[in-house]
Specification:
The chain has 630 residues and is mainly beta. The protein has eight helices and 37 strands.
Length: 630
């Protein structure tokens, strides 16, 4: 789990009112040349343009199309119009891949220097896998796009006086191969926001992406108007939404899709949502879908509007695992067609990281691309709108392996607990259990320990639900202000690895929600000796005194405190006082996990830093502690 990404995400949410989104990543209009590293998909022949329906823009010949760029956790890949998949860049150690676009045959990427502290971002040009630094900027809601020969970078900088200030820089490569910084659209952008024009649709959009897609700047105002402007900021057309919007979901030149949320007696959880289609040319509107708090299974999540088609999905849970059914809706005829189902799998890279069929969704050349998961890897699936049969297919280039699969499998149990008397869902739960493959020594003994831990967690959930049911009264149920359940408990496998010649580490990530402003994360770690099948702790490996251990932990914690003061509550205190606090808090029983190079001390949210920072992690090498893993 990336420890400090949460802080950057919090900044991004705060900056959402300033700008959002980046569009389809593109490359210059030239025929893609096949290289030795290219891998051909099933249909290697360029596709012919289709006849288009009313409202659709004609597709260009495939040789004029630019490749699609997809960014994973480990790799950046491209898909050519003919379906060839090529790996363009593989991240270096500690890097965190954010975004990438193609322009004039060059891959441009936004990369955080340190995956554990993603506040600093490098804007790079990548040629043949080698990075060339263009700019170094704070990672606050960065969006990059290539347009008219320049790389555009949107970002924000925060200060205590003015709050967030948005910037729109452009970088153009000169004859001497260096990049010159400009701001040709900054003044226009500032002027438009000063006139109450906003770009932050829920479906990502911004000034540059809008120009690139439509040759118009699509905006909305706080009083519910949608408008199109030219490059000089002159208004081309304007239309007014007929209802007060809750969220502007998506906008193109023909339509605006927005949601209207109404609450019963101003009780926030007793809601009804209408998904409304507004015709930008005629001003006419119609409600496409309606759902409420009693029918969450009918909720619609839009993916993309293309021509006269809306593509969306509905979400379901099957024993705690997510499943999404994807549909197309004809905006003219109202006909709905089921397309495919996408589901996640238990284990790392699944439940928490991927919203099946929706994460990193892209529509390109008559096909859908999105993040996906298989038994032994994560990557991307492709669904062909012309030939699809209810299921996408994994691309031949993966993003990363699911390394736990080398050692065993994941069992899981999920469900919900209801109070039948009051017809209330009290608790939902999802609990995974790693099972070591039988080929390993003492697998039965290790699996028995892990199964027992899972059963204890299940027993705790059922006991908590039973206790909660005892508190509910008829007065509660009849009270309109009564906050409904369910509470939730999740525990998912985080990582499995072999340490030394005969040690196995099994780590879990969990999250428990008791109905407050947010839930609370937790972790569980296990270390096993394969030679004996016994579970080990630091007591079995560390031979020095606890006082020495406390001193080592305090010194390494102080070093992190000095390097990253912004994540600590006590950043203004004297170093001696902070050292003593770390020392007093340290013990051989404190939360820690075992990794290949050393232990990692884990400070929980609120222990030393705010919730948004997540776990503060302090790595300590084994040799400093005198520990040897043979």
């Amino acid at each position: 789990m990336k420890n400090r990404i949460a802080k950057s995400l919090l900044y991004s949410l705060c900056a959402l009112l300033l700008f959002a989104g980046c569009g389809k990543q593109e490359k210059p209009a030239e025929e893609e040349q096949k290289t030795e590293s290219s891998i051909a998909a099933e249909d290697p022949q360029p596709e012919q343009p289709e006849e288009t329906g009313e409202g659709e823009e004609p597709q260009t010949q495939s040789e004029e199309q630019e490749p699609l760029v997809l960014v994973g956790n480990q790799r950046i890949i491209s898909v050519s119009p003919s379906g060839e998949v090529e790996m363009l860049y593989e991240k270096q150690e500690q890097e965190y891949l954010l975004q990438a676009v193609m322009g004039d045959g060059v891959l441009y990427a936004a990369i955080a220097e340190d995956e554990d502290n993603a506040e600093n971002c490098l804007i790079c040009a990548i040629r043949d896998g080698e990075k060339e630094l263009i700019a170094e900027i704070p990672n606050c809601d960065i969006r990059i796009e290539y347009y008219e020969g320049s790389l555009f970078v949107q970002h924000a900088i925060y200060d205590d006086v003015d709050g967030y200030t948005a910037y729109l820089d452009d970088y153009t490569r000169g004859k001497d191969a260096s990049y010159e910084k400009g701001n040709r659209f900054q003044e226009l952008r500032d002027s438009l926001e000063g006139q109450d024009y906003h770009f932050s649709f829920h479906n990502p959009n911004n000034l540059i992406t809008s120009l690139k897609r439509y040759d118009e700047i699509l905006v909305y105002t706080s009083d519910g108007k949608i408008a199109a402007l030219d490059k000089q900021g002159n208004q081309l057309w304007e239309t007014a939404l007929l209802q007060e919007y809750f969220l502007v979901e998506s906008v193109n030149t023909e339509y605006t899709l927005y949601s209207v949320r109404k609450e019963e007696n101003e009780v926030y959880w007793k809601y009804t949502v209408d998904l409304v289609l507004h015709n930008n040319q005629t001003g006419e509107e119609k409600t496409l879908f309606t759902w409420n708090y009693q029918t969450p299974e009918e909720a619609v999540s839009p993916l993309v509007m293309e021509g006269d088609k809306l593509y969306y999905y509905r979400s379901f849970s099957e024993n705690g695992l997510a499943r999404n059914d994807v549909y197309s809706y004809d905006l003219v005829t109202g006909e709905t067609e089921f397309l495919y189902t996408a589901a996640t799998l238990p284990g790392p890279g699944g439940k928490w990281q991927i919203n099946p069929g929706a994460t990193d969704f892209n529509s390109y050349n008559g096909k859908f691309y999105y993040r996906a998961i298989s038994e032994d890897s994560t990557g991307w699936e492709v669904y062909d709108l012309k030939t699809g049969s209810g299921q996408g297919e994994m691309l031949p280039v993966i993003d990363e392996e699911r390394t736990f699969a080398k050692y065993g499998k994941v069992l899981y149990e999920g469900g919900s607990i209801r109070d039948e008397e009051w017809d209330l869902e009290i608790y939902t739960y999802y609990i995974e259990c790693f099972q070591l493959d039988d080929s390993y020594q003492n697998a039965d003994k290790i699996n028995q320990i892990l199964e027992q831990e899972q059963q204890e967690a299940l027993d705790t959930v059922h006991q908590s639900a039973e206790n909660e049911m005892g508190y509910i009264t008829e007065e509660d149920v009849q009270d309109e202000e009564f906050t409904p359940y369910p509470y939730s408990y999740d525990m998912s496998l985080g990582q499995v690895d072999m340490l030394g010649s005969h040690y196995l580490t099994v780590n879990y990530d969990g999250y428990e929600d008791w109905g407050g402003a947010h839930g609370y994360p937790y972790r569980q770690h296990y270390l096993f000796d394969l030679n004996t099948g016994e579970e080990l702790t630091i007591y079995d490996l560390y031979t020095s005194t606890e006082e020495n251990f406390k001193d080592v932990v305090a010194k390494y914690s102080i070093q992190d405190w000095k390097e990253n003061p912004e994540i600590y509550f006590n950043s203004e205190e004297e170093e001696e006082t902070v050292y003593q606090d770390f020392y007093d808090n340290a013990s051989l029983d404190m939360a820690m996990r075992f990794e290949k190079q050393g232990i990692v001390i884990e400070y929980s949210p609120y222990e030393y830093g705010p919730y948004a920072v997540g776990f503060i992690e302090i790595p300590i090498p084994y040799d400093v502690l005198g520990i040897k893993l043979d």
